[in-house]
Amino acid sequence: MRKILPVTLLVAFAAATLWAADAAKVLDAATGVFQDMTSGTQIPSSVLHQAQCVAVIPQLTKAGFIVGGEHGSGVVSCRTSNGWSAPAFISMTGGSIGLQAGAEHQDVILLMNNQGKQELIGGHWELGAEASAAGPTSSAAASENTGWKAPVLTYTHSKGAFAGADLSGSKVHVDNDTIHNLYGSNAPLQSILNGETPAPSSAQQFLTALQTAAGR
C-alpha cells in the first residue's frame, strides 16, 4: 500500500500537468486567432464593444472536430464589472459550418449578447436559425445591428477569406473535464463566466487581447 500511494499520486500529477498543457495550447491558439481576426476592420469595433461574451474556436474542421482533441477545443470569456472573466473551455460539433471549397478547417469567433450569455451558461445549446446570425463586416452594417437580436453573431476565417457565417445546427458544449482539471471540481461554469474564479497565468495573453480589441 505504501508503494501504491506514491505511484497513484505521481500518475495524478502527470495527468494534471498534461491537462494544463493542453489548456495552455488551446488558449495560445485562441489568442492568435482572435488577434488575427480583429487586427483589421472586418469585425467592426462597435460590435466587439457590444459583445457580452466572446468565444474563439481555432481550426474547426468540416466534421465538427476541433484541434485540441476532445479536451478543450475552444475558449469563451464574458464581460464582468471587473473586466473579462477567466476563460471557460467549450467545444463545437456538427451542423453546417459552411467551409469554403477545398478548405480543411476554419477559425471561428462567436460574439454573444446578454441572451447568448445566459444560454451559454445553461451549458449546452444548438445554434439554430434563430440563435445565430452572420456578423456584419462593415461599420455601416454594424450600425444597423446595434442591440442585435440573434443571441450570437458568427465570424469565420478560412483560406485567407474572412466573412460572417451561418453555423446553424452546430452545437456548443461545455468542456467540463478541462474546466475541472484547470480550476478544480468546485468551479462551475457560471462562477467562471461571472468573474468569480481567478484566471490562470496561461490566460493572461488571451484576456489582454480581448481587452485591447473589445474594451473592458
Description:
The protein has 216 residues and is α+β, with helices and mostly antiparallel strands. The chain has one domain (4-214). 36% of the residues lie in helices and 25% in strands. It is built from 7 helices and 10 strands. The chain has helices spanning 4-38, 45-50, 114-121, 139-143, 176-183, 189-193, 204-214; strands at residues 53-61, 74-80, 83-84, 88-93, 105-112, 124-127, 132-134, 152-158, 161-164, 170-174. Strands 1, 2, 3, 4, 5, 6, 7, 8, 9 and 10 form a 10-stranded mixed beta sheet that branches. A hairpin with a 2-residue loop joins strand 8 (152-158) and strand 9 (161-164). Helix 1 (4-38) runs parallel beside helix 7. The N and C termini lie far apart (52 Å). The relative contact order is 0.21. The model is unreliable at 7-19, 63-72 and 99-103 (pLDDT under 50).
How do you describe this structure in short?
The protein has helices at 4-38, 45-50, 114-121, 139-143, 176-183, 189-193, 204-214; strands spanning 53-61, 74-80, 83-84, 88-93, 105-112, 124-127, 132-134, 152-158, 161-164, 170-174. The chain is an alpha+beta fold and 216 residues long.
List keywords for this structure.
10-stranded mixed sheet, globular, 25% strand, alpha+beta, 216 residues
